[in-house]
Every structure is written in structure tokens, then in C-alpha cells.
């Protein structure tokens, strides 16, 4: 093990009166998760504002060849710290960490470097990870907490999935977004009550959510051109990262389809299983992952079956096992860094659902994406000639006109 | 011209197509199947006005009729929106046009101002556009012509009489420029450079755009550059091996998009002349949202104070010619400009000159020397002449100058003249950004820009010219901009496209000028210096270089760092001034400089040659003076210059040692031939894999070290342009092995590397780990071969054996598990022995250095950086400069990794951190880090390695390497390092 310059731990005392700032990625999911943390006694704030200074702060404090997501995440946190809105003696930052072979495992260290450079070296940074990579006595992920966070992800995915399918067809402008807000607020209250974490209640909520979105759709056929979005997790989901891609697509009159966040979590869990198969490493971790994998898949399939049986007007989340099987003849599922095999798997999943137009988003110079994004397109196109893919790079200096022109080219061939 | 359309869309209809590209506007009018009008004009970013005036010109043809309209082109998007007119993407338009006019076309190559496109028709319609980073477009050719001081037509004409093609990086304009500059300085002919530029465009199109798809059959070429440049056409035809029948250059090449757009619009909404012009006129009023920045000056008073403050920093000039006595000449032959000053005994400037190289610095210096002789004749005695800059050697040799000094020393000498306490110098020239910190009177840390940030200074100049301004006027425009636009900082290619977007959105010249200045400054501060606060720079900052003569740039810099700085009035001449001061400090009784007659009669020719000293085959430029004196440049080692070293004089070089070790594995004849591509991770584990297969009775066929040829062989199947060069080479290695008719190719996928217990984890980077997957997915030629790329655990010989056996048993049925197990054990043993050999040699090298009192350079990088094509002979260059060269793995076996503030998860990088610690612990050991362009991982490691070194007062030197590396720049960097070290020693001895 390497000796590390000691990081500031988030202590139990800090838990009482420190405000934890969380950067944005998935607005719905993260605001639910923030709330769960709040109910667990943390003071949390989810950073929603997205002004232009974020990019500049990132460019200033992070090595400019670092990936765009790191630049934005760190820029956003630094911007918040410098805003004067917070008592700097009582603020902590939170950053996720995967521990994989891609640069992303280093984001948290880059954040600490940036804080030090900016003169905020005393602010504690909490690593949100599921592998005990760091020790923060005041921030413990207990099983009940993890379980609640998991439901946030499922709720978030469901709302995102359905809202994407109603937004292009709504009769009243903004109807869908209002519904998203209504349900997010409702769930914030709902999940605060421990009673409501029973699975039956949750399943009932799923149904209610789907009913409400079904009302927006009415009997309008979902007949617009569908465009799938896959890619590096941050630029795929975060409007800040992808120049409001979904909004642009909406204005082009197409329906965007985005495989959910839970899939990425299941992918990470699955890698724990497969690492043992390949390398005979970490037997116990593999065992735990196996159980967890089945559990998550079960939960996801409950949502899938509900939509299949009760809401045939909607496209359900994919069956993860099928997604994984489908990709095997394209890339070995030992390819696990970054989005790994999941990225081509999602392209194939979209194609199998008839979503043949795909935008693959990635930060400029993203290492895993050379392999699993741009590197897989030839094979996927050859074996699925109907598929129409475009790769779009995101970068602080890339112009929107350039990106939009390429997307338009893809759309002009869209069927 | 007839427009043939099978769908009869043109019958009895009037169709108008408008194509607005990044630099030009084109319109086409089709009347009942006949192209009745077409026009092509530059729009100078006045997109909407230009369109309107083009339409107004054909009022007669349109009045009284109704017609359909369709707009296409990247710059047309915004206008179509604002005027609510139909829009069609330009590639789609092109396809539409080609399908009608030339249905038997297999593929179209279209080069525009900023975009390059390929459309494949046969075998599934497929359309490609260049990525964000790619060059090879009209804007690129324009820039290159400016660099050569030629018009586009002249460059085209020149190119036709070429003799040699030089390799020029085709990735983007910035990189190409970095390659061309030294060629110009070395005296390569314009004809050769022009043809090489076109070839670079072709390579970019074939490799970067086609991305694995071969361009075959009947090819149509469209767009401005291909229509106008014969030389470019010729390069395409030759490279793609097309005959006349298969290379189509249609007369409507410029209007294909406009015609396509017209056809696309058929059947849509009809307009009449009045409605259309009204719509366009209304669109003039809308101005899009642009992100803008605060103005540079609050008011005139602030500006006046600023001017007054900087006027203080002036050097006395005496141009009257009244001076008699000793004089000293300083010449700074930079990458784009040549500067020359003559100073008096009292440090007054009595003559100065600053001009662009115009592609031939020798001629310029000759003219100037003659002028000096003429102006001063007997009044002055030249008592010393020093040369600095890229062209140092060339000029020194050509005119017999007395001294050559490293740029950094020249600049420091000059800066000290203005501010004896100077502790930070920033120089922004046309091409390069250099900065150095001064500590205890010696240069403490040197930072130079890497390829991506180069050319910022000259970009402003080129841009000003294209807008019909002089640089000075353009700069003045920026001073009072109310809302400077944000143009980004990545590189000039990105800036160029941001500028165009800003113009389309309605930004003024003032706003763009100020925005550009700010971009250049931000680039220097955040990308080159990597500073966030003024304290990191210093108290006494001197800024210089031609670009700082621009007041807008100076102001932006002061504003951005929040501190006042010194800008000498001769900011552009500092290198030359420093050189002159240096010559003066060594005052001679008489300089050896050529006499007036000799200068006048000097005959200078240059020709290109290929070095046959080793397999590297460096492209040399041989300069010949007066038919006998020769100066050779372009060589990587002493051999190219015709110098032979005896064995005793050869310094230990671990890079060479490691290469020899790998070459020493001799294969045995066997039942099967197994191919090993010598690239990426194979460099580290070749001893292991060789031994495994050798033990199993295979004949191991190695692809050998990379060469440019190998790269080109596989170039067409590279899917991602921004991956690192070591990875891109892999494609050529695979092709090489296939040519050798191997039975199988082996390159395992290794998520985890050898665990050396130095880090938190022992990963490979995603590229090294999974490049096999990319090869499998992109190389058609692999489809008919057994490509074996199992996921293996190399840290346990049992697991390794199992994995190998599973991967091999289906392909080679006669292999038993027991054999594989034995082979795996033997292989791992061999690997550890191999590493032991490297440690032993490392110790020997260190011992040698201490015995012979030599400096040691830990040339750090990755194992595959020993490939001569990857590191371009930098190890040999370092050795020729007197360094004992060791690799990071040869000296760190027992070094503990220092305390880190990053997550240490990659095996190769753990060695890197340990090597930094090693350099800290030893005097006389310097660390130089090789970084491949596009290596994302090194964005994390470089800052950390720098921190480790600087904590202990060591110098950090980083060298970015890519497809092509400008060794001239590397040489300057290493010589600056030596200069700084010598000065430090000098100081500590005092």
C-alpha cells in the first residue's frame, strides 16, 4: 500500500453541524438520495445551480488534460465553496469513487489537490464508495441506508424512463416536467417515513407513478423517431456535461431513450463476480456480489414486468441478463474499466428495442471510451446494419455548433 | 448544366439551394432540370448579410415566380432557425446531389473550410465527419500557406515540383505546424513542404476519417480545396491508387451541397422573392446569446495610466548611426521570426530588426548583416556575435558566429537587465510559450508549452490578417471591447471554431480581439504554468515575446493574475538582446563573424537525405555552405551528423540496453508460428510470453520495433484519433505479423499487471489492458486468423497456466495442461530474471556515472517508450548531451514510493513515483518524464511527479511525444535543463 498524505476525516462531531455539498449528475436521483441522507441525520445540500463559472473554476484548478467530468464536478464544488453561501468551517464535500482502473478513481484526490490550491485544504471530502476505500467515522453507509439509497435509484430511473417517453408527446407544454417535480416532492415526503419503505408500498408507488405518466401520454401513439443516448456516465446523464443534449433532441422533435442508472450499478456489482471467475481474486466479495446481483435484478425485473403487463404503451427497462448475454460475442465481459462492456451492451440493447439511432457521448480523450465506445462501433454497425451511431465529444472548448451539426447529420438518416 | 433526377423533382419547378459553410457561401438555382445560376463567395462571417446580397443579385431570376428554398451548411443552421427556413444537414445534401449526378459513385470525399467528410455509398450508406480535433481542412491549408508566406495558388504550384515528402503529423493544424516549422528552419524547400502538407491532409482523411473502412472504387472529390489545389488532388489520387476512371473531379464540385439542398427542398413550401428577402432581412436583427467577459479597461484614464506605467521599462535606443566603437550582435532565430539587435558598449540598441522568417532564415540574416555592414561600415568593430533559438546551429555555422546560447539563458540575461530581482519570466512568442522561475539567481523551473497550446501568438496575427487588419490595429480594437467573447483555451483549432461561432452569433471585431487575447493568456497561465494564484509566479514578473507587444494581451495577463508586471519596450527582441549582452560579457577583440564580402558571397543550398546509420532512417536536411561546409539537421543521434564514437565514449543507456535485451530472444523452429505484436504491454512482458511459447515448442514471431512504415501499414483501421501513438502503432504490428503468415497472434488482455507491491492497486491503463478488444473489433484482417487475447492473471503461475490453457486448447489441440503449467512457471521465472538484468545494468550505469562524474537522467515513461519510433531517439539525444540514461524500472526496485496525494493504482505509474523519489534522493540525478499525447492517465501523474520533485528542490522536465516529435524543441529543452543545472552548480561553488 502507498503511504498517503493524510486526508481530513469526516468525524462523528462533524456529522452534527457540517453541511455536506453534493455535486449534480442526475437531478432526480440525487435529490432523493440527498433527502435520504438528511433523514439519517446529515445536513446535505444538493448543488443544482449550473452557471458558466463552473467550467472556468474547473479549468483553473484541475489539470486541463483531465477528463471533462472531473473538471465540472470539481469546478462545481469549488464554485459553491467560494460562493460565500456556506460557513467554511462547517462544510464538507462529497464525491463518489469507484476504485476501477480508469482515472475516475482519482477524482477525489484531484478535488483535494484543487481545494488545497484554492486555499480550502481544511475542508473534509467524503468518499462515497462501496468498497471501504477510505475511513470517515462520521459517514457510514449502513445497510438500511444503502437499501434506501437503492430505492432512490429505482424511483429515479422509473421517473426518468417514463418522463422521457411522455415529454415529446405532452399536449400541454411543461406537463411532464411538472409531473416529475410533483413526484420528486411527493417521494421526498413519502420516503421520510420508515413505514413507507416496505416493498409493497414501494411497488404501489411505482404503479401510481406509471399511472400518472400514462395520463400525460393518453392515447397518443409514441411514433416519433427514437434516439438512444449512451456513453460515459457523467456526460450521458448530466445536462451540464452534455450541453443540454436532451433538450436539444426534444427541440429536434425526437424521443430520447436513456438506459438507466441502476444498470450501471448492476454492472459494477457484476464485475465483482466476474473478477473472481477470471482471476480467482476476492472470493468473499464475489459471493456478496452474486447475492446482490440477483437481488437488484429481481427488483429491476419487478418494474419491467409491471410496465410490460400494465403499461404496454411504455418501453420498460431492459432485462439486464439479456443485455449482458447479447454483448458477449462483441466484447469480453472482462472489459470492466469505466463503463466497460456495458456501453456496447446498451447500444445493442437499444438496437434490439428498435432504437436504431444512437448518440454515444464521451469526454474528449476518455480512455475507456476509445475501446468500448468508438472502438466497438465498427463491429456493431457491421453486424447490425440498421444501426446509426454518432460519437460526440464533450470538452470545455468544444463548440455546441460542432456537436449539433454532427447530431443533425445522424438525425437526417434517422428512421 | 443538366441536373438529372430520377425522381423528377426538378420538372417544371424552380429550386433554390443555399449552402453556407464556415468560410464561404454558395447558391444554386435549378430551373426545370437545368442549373441556371450558381455563385461562390467568401462571407467573412457576415453570414446573413452575404446570403441576402447573393439572393438580391438574382432578383431578376426569381421575381414573379414561386420557388422552394433550402439552406444547408454548418453556418447556415443558425440563420435557417432565425429566418424559419427549411434546413438540411450538408452531408445529406451532398449525398442527394451525388446520387442524382453520378449514381455509380462508391464514395465521396469532401473537404470544406472546417469540416472534412466522407460518404460511402456502396456496402451500406455511411457518412463520416471529422471529430472535434481533426485538421486536414481548408482552414488548415490556408494557415499552412500563410506560414510558408505563399498564397494558396502559389503553394499549389510549388507542390507540383516536389522531390521529397516529409512526414507531417496529420492529426491537426497545430501539430502539423509544429512539424513544419523546424522543416522551414532547417531549410527544406517550399516545394517539398507544400507537397508534404497536402500529403498530411490525405493521410488525415484516409486514416482519421475513414476509420477502418477502405476507400475503394469510384471516388468523387468535392469542396473548395479539392477543386482548387491540383497538388492536393494529385496526392489523393496517388495515395488511393486511383486511375482516371475512378477519380472524379466534377465541374460542380463547389456547388454539390447547394444543388443537393435545392433538390431536397423540392415539393416543400413555396416562397416568392419578397417573402424570402423579408425573412432574411428580419433574421439580421436577431443576435444570439454569447457568453461574454468583463471589458479590459473601465475607461480611458485607466488605459492612460497603464500606458504610462509600461513606458518606464524602456531600453535606450540610438539609431542615428552616430555611435563609434565596439559593438555586439545578438541574433534570435526563432521558430517563426528572426530577431536581431546590435548593442553598444553602453547597452544601447544601435540597430534592431524583427521579422517573420519567410521560410528562409539564412537569407534574412544575410540581408541584415549586409545592412549592418553598410550602415556602420567602419564606425563599429564587431567584438562578438551570439545566436540563440531554433535556428541557432544553422545561423552559427552559416555566418561563423562566435557563440550559441540556449534560449532560456538568453531570455534570463535580458530580463535581468530590466529587473535585476526578476523571479519569473514569461515569454509568449509566435509559436511557443515558455516560462521559468528564478530562484537564488538561477533558473529554477522551466515550463514550456506542449504541442496543443502552441501557435497561440501567431494565431492572433494570422487571424488579424484574415480580417484585413495589421496586428497592431487588431490589438487596439480589443482594448475597448465592451464584451470580450469567451473563446476557450484548448488550442487554436478549437479557438478558430469558437471565433467563427461567435461571429455567426454577431460578435464584433473588438469583442473577438479582446477574447483572443484573453484565451492566449489563460492558455499560458492555466495550461502551461498551471498556476492559480499570482504568488505561485513571483513578485517580479517580466513578460516578453512578440505577443506581449500586444497591449490587449498584456492587460489581460495583468488582470488575470491581479498583479502588475514589467514588459520591456523591446519585448519582442529579448532573446536577441540577451544574446548580444552575452556576447558583450565575453567581449572579444574581434569577432570571427564573416566579413561583408564573405556574407555577400555565401552560397547556401539545402537538400534532403535519409540517414542510413540505423533502422530509424531519420530524414536529414543537409545544408551546404559555399559548396563545402555542411550542417546536418534532423538526426536523432551522432551517427546522422557523421560522428563515430568508440566504445569507451559510449555512455550507459538503459533504453538501448533494454532494446538489446528484447532483441536477444531468438526463436526456435516449431510446429506452429505464434505472432507477438511488440507494442504497448508486450514491451513489459515479452520475456514472459516468449518463454512460455518457446517452451511449448512454438516458433515465436515478433513484429519487431516500430517504424513509421509499420504505423502506416495499420493506420487505416484506427477508430479513435485521440488515442495515444503507442496504441495506434499496434495496428501496424498486427498487419506485420499477418504478412509473416503466423498461425495465431497473441496479445493478452490484462486488467491487472504484475503486482510490485508499490501501490494501492496494480492495474494497467484501459488502453494497455483492452486494446486487444479494439483490434478484434476493428481489424478486418484479423478475422481470418486466430487472435488469442485471453484475460489472464499474471500474478499466480497456477492461474496464469489455467487461463492460458483454456485459451490455447481449442486452437492447438495437442497441448496438454501439464506442459502449459511448466511453461507458465518458466515464463514467469524468465520475466523476473529479465527484470533482475535490468536492475543490475541500472546499478552499473549509476556506478559508471559516479566514477566518470556524469549526470544521470532517469528518463521515465512506460516500458513501451523504449520503442525508437515512440520516443523518437530522445534517449540517444540525451546520451549525446552527456547524460547516463537510466529507465524508471532499472533504479526503483528497492525504492519506496513517497507519500502521495493521488490514488496510486497503476503498476507502471507506481514506478514513476518511486523514480521521482529516487531522483530526489540522489544528487546528479535528474528526472525527465516522457508523456505520450492523449495519455489521460498522465494528466494525473505529471502534476504529482512535479510536486514530489519540487518539494525537494529538483527540476521537473516533461516532454510530450506523439506521432512526430520536434527533436529541435526537445534539444532546446534538454539544453536548458543542462544550462540551469550548470548555473546552480556554479552558484553553489561560489
Considering the chains and any ligands shown, give keywords for the structure.
heterodimer, A: 415 residues, alpha/beta, Rossmann fold, 16 helices, B: 990 residues, Nucleotidyltransferase, domain 5, six-stranded mixed sheet, 37 helices, 17% strand
Q: Topology of this protein?
A:
The complex is a heterodimer of chains A (415) and B (990).
Chain A: H1 12-17, E1 19-22, H2 27-39, E2 43-46, H3 53-61, H4 68-82, E3 91-96, H5 107-117, E4 125-128, H6 143-166, H7 175-192, H8 199-217, E5 226-231, H9 233-237, H10 245-251, E6 255-257, H11 261-279, H12 283-310, H13 320-327, H14 342-352, E7 357-363, H15 367-383, E8 388-394, H16 400-412
Helix pairs in contact in A: 2-6, 2-7, 3-4, 6-7, 6-8, 7-8, 8-12, 11-12, 13-14, 14-15
Chain B: E1 14-20, E2 24-31, E3 34-42, H1 47-57, H2 59-62, E4 67-72, H3 76-82, E5 87-88, H4 90-101, E6 107-111, E7 116-120, E8 126-129, H5 138-147, H6 152-159, H7 173-186, H8 190-209, E9 219-222, H9 224-228, H10 230-239, E10 247-248, H11 256-265, E11 270-271, H12 273-283, H13 300-311, E12 325-333, E13 337-344, E14 349-356, H14 361-376, E15 380-388, H15 392-399, E16 403-404, H16 407-418, E17 424-428, E18 433-439, E19 442-448, H17 456-466, H18 471-479, H19 492-504, H20 509-529, H21 534-537, E20 541-544, H22 551-561, H23 574-585, H24 596-601, E21 604-610, E22 619-625, E23 629-633, H25 654-663, E24 673-676, H26 682-695, E25 699-702, H27 708-714, H28 725-739, E26 744-746, H29 766-778, E27 786-788, H30 797-808, H31 817-852, E28 855-860, H32 868-871, H33 874-880, E29 883-887, H34 888-891, H35 907-921, E30 925-932, H36 937-951, E31 956-961, H37 967-989
Parallel strand pairs in B: 1-4, 4-5, 6-9, 9-10, 12-15, 15-16, 17-20, 24-25, 24-26, 26-27, 28-29, 28-30, 30-31
Antiparallel strand pairs in B: 1-2, 2-3, 4-11, 6-7, 7-8, 12-13, 13-14, 17-18, 18-19, 21-22, 22-23
Helix pairs in contact in B: 1-12, 4-11, 6-8, 7-8, 8-10, 14-15, 16-23, 17-20, 18-20, 18-22, 19-20, 20-22, 25-31, 26-31, 27-28, 30-31, 35-36
Amino acid at each position: 500500500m502507498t503511504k498517503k498524505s493524510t486526508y481530513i476525516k469526516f468525524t462523528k462531531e462533524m456529522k452534527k453541524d457540517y453541511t455536506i455539498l453534493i455535486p449534480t449528475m442526475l437531478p432526480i436521483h440525487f435529490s432523493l438520495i440527498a433527502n435520504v441522507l438528511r433523514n439519517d441525520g446529515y445536513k446535505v445540500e444538493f448543488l443544482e445551480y449550473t452557471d458558466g463559472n463552473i467550467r472556468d473554476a474547473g479549468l483553473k484548478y484541475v489539470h486541463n488534460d483531465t477528463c471533462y467530468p472531473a473538471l465540472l464536478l470539481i469546478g462545481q464544488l469549488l464554485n459553491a465553496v467560494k460562493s460565500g453561501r456556506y460557513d467554511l468551517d462547517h462544510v464538507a464535500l462529497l464525491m463518489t469513487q469507484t476504485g476501477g482502473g480508469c482515472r475516475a478513481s482519482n477524482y477525489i484526490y484531484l478535488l483535494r489537490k484543487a481545494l488545497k490550491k484554492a486555499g480550502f485544504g481544511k475542508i473534509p471530502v467524503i468518499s462515497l464508495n462501496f468498497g471501504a476505500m477510505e475511513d470517515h467515522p462520521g459517514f457510514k453507509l449502513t445497510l438500511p441506508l444503502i437499501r434506501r439509497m437503492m430505492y432512490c435509484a429505482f424511483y429515479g430511473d422509473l421517473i426518468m424512463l417514463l418522463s422521457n417517453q411522455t415529454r415529446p408527446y405532452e399536449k400541454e407544454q411543461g406537463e411532464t416536467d411538472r409531473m416529475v417535480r410533483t413526484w420528486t416532492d411527493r417521494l421526498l415526503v413519502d420516503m421520510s417515513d420508515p413505514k413507507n419503505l416496505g416493498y409493497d408500498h414501494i411497488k404501489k408507488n411505482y404503479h401510481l407513478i406509471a399511472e400518472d405518466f400514462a395520463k400525460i401520454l393518453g392515447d397518443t401513439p409514441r411514433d416519433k423517431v427514437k434516439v438512444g443516448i449512451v456513453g460515459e456516465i457523467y456526460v450521458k446523464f448530466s445536462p451540464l456535461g452534455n450541453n443540454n443534449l436532451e433538450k436539444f433532441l426534444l427541440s429536434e422533435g425526437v424521443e430520447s431513450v436513456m438506459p438507466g442508472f441502476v444498470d450501471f450499478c448492476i454492472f459494477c456489482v457484476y464485475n465483482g463476480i466476474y473478477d473472481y471467475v477470471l482471476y480467482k481474486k476476492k472470493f468473499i466479495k464475489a459471493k456478496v456480489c452474486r447475492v446482490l446481483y440477483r437481488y437488484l435484478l429481481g427488483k429491476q425485473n419487478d418494474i419491467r414486468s409491471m410496465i410490460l403487463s400494465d403499461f404496454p404503451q411504455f418501453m420498460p427497462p431492459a432485462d439486464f441478463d439479456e443485455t449482458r448475454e447479447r454483448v458477449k460475442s462483441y466484447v469480453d465481459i472482462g472489459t470492466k474499466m469505466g463503463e466497460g462492456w456495458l456501453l456496447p451492451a446498451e447500444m445493442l440493447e437499444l438496437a434490439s428495442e428498435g432504437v436504431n439511432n444512437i448518440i454515444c457521448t464521451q469526454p474528449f480523450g476518455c480512455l475507456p471510451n476509445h475501446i468500448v465506445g468508438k472502438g466497438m462501433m465498427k463491429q456493431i454497425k457491421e453486424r447490425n446494419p440498421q444501426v446509426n451511431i454518432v460519437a460526440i465529444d464533450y470538452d470545455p472548448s468544444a463548440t455546441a455548433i460542432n456537436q449539433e451539426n454532427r447530431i443533425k447529420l445522424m438525425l437526417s438518416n434517422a428512421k | 448544366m443538366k441536373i438529372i433526377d430520377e425522381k423528377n423533382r426538378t420538372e417544371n419547378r424552380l429550386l433554390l439551394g443555399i449552402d453556407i459553410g464556415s468560410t464561404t457561401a454558395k447558391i444554386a438555382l435549378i430551373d426545370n432540370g437545368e442549373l441556371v445560376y450558381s455563385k461562390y463567395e467568401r462571407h467573412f462571417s457576415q453570414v446573413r448579410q452575404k446570403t441576402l446580397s447573393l439572393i438580391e443579385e438574382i432578383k431578376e431570376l426569381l421575381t414573379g415566380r414561386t420557388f422552394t428554398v433550402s439552406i444547408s451548411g454548418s453556418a447556415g443552421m443558425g440563420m435557417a432557425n432565425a429566418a424559419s427556413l427549411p434546413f438540411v444537414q450538408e452531408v445529406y445534401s451532398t449525398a442527394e446531389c451525388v446520387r442524382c449526378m453520378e449514381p455509380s459513385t462508391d464514395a465521396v470525399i469532401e473537404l470544406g473550410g472546417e469540416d472534412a467528410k466522407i460518404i460511402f455509398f456502396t456496402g451500406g450508406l455511411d457518412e463520416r465527419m471529422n471529430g472535434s480535433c481533426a485538421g486536414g481542412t481548408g482552414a488548415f491549408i490556408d494557415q499552412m500557406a500563410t506560414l510558408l508566406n505563399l498564397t494558396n495558388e502559389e503553394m499549389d504550384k510549388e507542390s507540383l515540383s516536389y522531390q521529397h515528402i516529409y512526414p507531417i503529423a496529420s492529426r491537426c493544424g497545430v501539430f502539423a505546424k509544429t512539424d513544419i516549422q523546424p522543416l522551414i528552419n532547417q531549410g527544406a524547400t517550399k516545394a517539398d513542404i507544400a507537397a508534404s502538407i497536402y500529403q498530411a491532409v490525405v493521410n488525415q482523411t484516409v486514416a482519421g476519417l475513414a476509420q477502418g473502412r477502405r476507400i475503394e472504387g469510384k471516388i468523387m472529390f468535392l469542396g473548395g480545396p479539392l477543386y482548387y489545389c491540383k497538388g492536393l488532388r494529385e496526392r489523393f489520387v496517388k495515395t488511393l491508387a486511383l486511375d482516371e476512371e475512378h477519380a472524379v473531379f466534377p465541374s460542380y464540385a463547389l456547388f454539390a451541397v447547394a444543388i443537393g439542398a435545392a433538390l431536397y427542398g423540392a415539393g416543400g413550401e413555396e416562397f416568392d422573392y419578397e417573402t424570402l428577402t423579408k425573412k432574411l432581412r428580419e433574421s439580421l436583427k436577431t443576435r444570439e446569446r454569447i457568453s461574454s467577459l468583463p471589458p479590459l479597461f473601465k475607461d480611458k484614464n485607466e488605459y492612460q495610466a497603464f500606458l504610462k506605467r509600461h513606458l518606464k521599462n524602456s531600453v535606450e535606443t540610438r539609431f542615428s548611426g552616430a555611435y563609434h566603437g565596439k559593438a555586439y550582435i545578438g541574433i534570435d532565430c526563432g521558430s517563426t521570426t528572426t530577431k536581431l539587435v546590435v548593442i553598444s558598449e553602453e547597452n544601447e540598441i544601435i540597430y534592431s530588426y524583427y521579422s517573420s522568417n519567410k521560410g528562409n532564415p539564412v537569407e534574412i540574416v544575410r540581408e541584415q548583416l549586409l545592412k549592418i555592414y553598410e550602415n556602420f561600415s567602419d564606425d563599429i568593430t564587431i567584438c562578438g556575435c551570439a545566436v540563440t533559438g531554433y535556428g541557432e546551429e544553422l545561423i552559427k555555422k552559416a555566418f561563423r558566429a562566435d557563440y550559441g546560447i540556449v534560449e532560456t539563458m538568453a531570455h534570463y540575461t535580458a530580463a535581468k537587465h530590466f529587473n535585476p530581482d526578476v523571479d519569473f519570466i514569461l515569454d509568449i512568442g509566435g509559436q511557443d510559450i515558455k516560462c521559468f522561475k528564478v530562484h537564488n539567481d538561477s533558473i529554477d523551473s522551466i515550463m514550456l508549452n506542449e504541442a496543443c497550446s502552441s501557435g497561440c501568438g501567431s494565431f492572433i496575427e494570422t487571424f488579424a490578417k484574415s480580417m484585413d487588419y495589421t496586428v497592431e490595429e487588431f490589438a487596439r480594437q480589443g482594448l475597448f471591447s465592451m464584451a470580450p467573447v469567451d473563446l476557450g483555451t484548448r488550442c487554436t483549432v478549437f479557438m478558430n471554431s469558437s471565433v467563427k461561432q461567435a461571429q455567426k452569433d454577431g460578435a464584433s471585431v473588438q469583442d473577438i480581439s479582446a477574447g483572443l487575447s484573453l484565451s492566449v493568456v489563460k492558455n499560458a497561465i492555466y495550461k502551461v504554468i498551471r498556476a492559480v494564484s499570482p504568488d505561485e509566479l513571483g513578485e517580479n514578473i517580466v513578460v516578453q515575446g512578440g505577443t506581449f507587444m500586444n497591449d490587449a494581451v498584456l492587460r489581460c495577463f495583468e488582470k488575470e493574475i491581479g498583479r502588475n508586471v514589467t514588459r520591456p519596450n523591446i519585448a519582442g527582441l529579448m532573446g536577441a538582446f540577451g544574446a548580444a549582452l552575452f556576447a558583450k560579457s565575453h567581449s572579444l577583440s574581434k569577432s570571427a563573424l564573416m566579413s561583408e564580402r564573405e556574407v555577400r558571397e555565401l552560397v547556401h543550398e539545402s537538400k534532403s537525405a535519409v540517414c542510413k546509420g540505423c533502422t530509424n532512417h531519420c530524414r536529414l536536411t543537409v545544408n551546404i555552405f559555399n559548396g563545402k561546409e555542411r550542417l546536418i539537421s534532423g538526426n536523432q543521434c551522432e551517427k546522422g551528423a557523421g560522428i563515430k564514437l568508440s566504445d569507451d565514449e559510449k555512455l550507459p543507456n538503459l533504453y538501448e540496453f533494454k532494446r538489446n535485451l528484447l532483441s536477444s530472444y531468438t526463436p526456435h523452429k516449431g510446429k506452429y508460428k505464434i505472432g507477438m505484436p511488440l507494442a504497448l504491454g508486450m514491451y513489459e512482458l515479452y520475456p514472459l510470453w516468449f518463454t512460455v511459447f518457446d517452451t511449448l515448442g512454438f516458433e515465436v514471431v515478433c513484429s519487431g520495433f516500430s517504424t513509421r512504415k509499420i504505423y502506416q501499414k495499420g493506420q487505416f483501421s484506427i477508430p479513435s484519433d485521440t488515442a495515444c501513438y503507442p496504441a495506434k502503432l499496434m495496428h501496424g504490428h498486427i498487419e506485420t505479423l499477418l504478412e509473416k503468415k503466423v498461425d495465431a497472434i497473441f496479445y493478452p488482455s490484462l486488467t491487472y499487471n504484475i503486482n510490485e507491491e508499490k501501490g494501492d492497486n496494480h492495474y494497467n491503463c484501459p488502453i494497455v489492458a483492452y486494446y486487444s478488444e479494439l483490434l478484434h473489433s476493428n481489424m478486418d484482417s484479423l478475422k481470418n486468423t486466430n487472435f488469442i487475447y485471453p484475460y489472464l492473471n499474471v500474478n499466480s503461475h497456477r492461474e496464469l497456466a489455467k487461463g492460458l490453457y483454456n485459451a490455447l486448447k481449442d486452437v492447438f489441440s495437442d497441448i496438454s495442461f501439464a506442459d502449459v503449467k511448466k511453461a507458465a512457471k518458466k515464463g514467469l521465472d524468465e520475466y523476473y530474471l529479465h527484470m533482475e538484468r535490468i536492475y543490475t545494468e541500472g546499478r552499473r550505469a549509476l556506478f559508471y556515472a559516479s566514477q566518470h562524474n556524469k549526470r544521470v537522467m532517469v528518463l521515465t515513461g512506460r516500458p513501451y517508450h523504449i520503442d525508437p519510433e515512440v520516443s523518437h531517439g530522445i534517449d540517444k539525444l540525451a546520451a549525446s548531451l552527456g547524460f547516463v540514461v537510466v529507465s524508471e524500472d532499472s533504479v526503483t526496485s528497492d525504492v519506496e514510493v513517497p507519500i502521495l496525494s493521488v490514488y496510486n493504482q497503476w503498476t507502471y505509474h507506481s514506478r514513476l513515483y518511486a523514480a521521482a523519489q529516487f531522483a530526489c534522493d540522489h544528487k546528479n540525478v535528474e528526472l525527465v518524464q516522457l508523456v505520450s499525447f492523449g495519455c489521460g492517465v498522465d494528466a494525473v501523474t505529471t502534476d504529482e511527479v512535479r510536486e514530489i520533485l519540487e518539494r525537494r528542490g529538483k527540476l521537473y522536465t516533461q516532454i510530450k511525444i506523439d506521432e512526430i516529435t520536434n527533436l529541435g524543441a526537445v534539444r532546446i529543452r534538454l539544453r536548458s535543463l543542462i544550462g540551469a543545472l550548470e548555473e546552480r552548480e556554479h552558484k553553489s561553488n561560489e
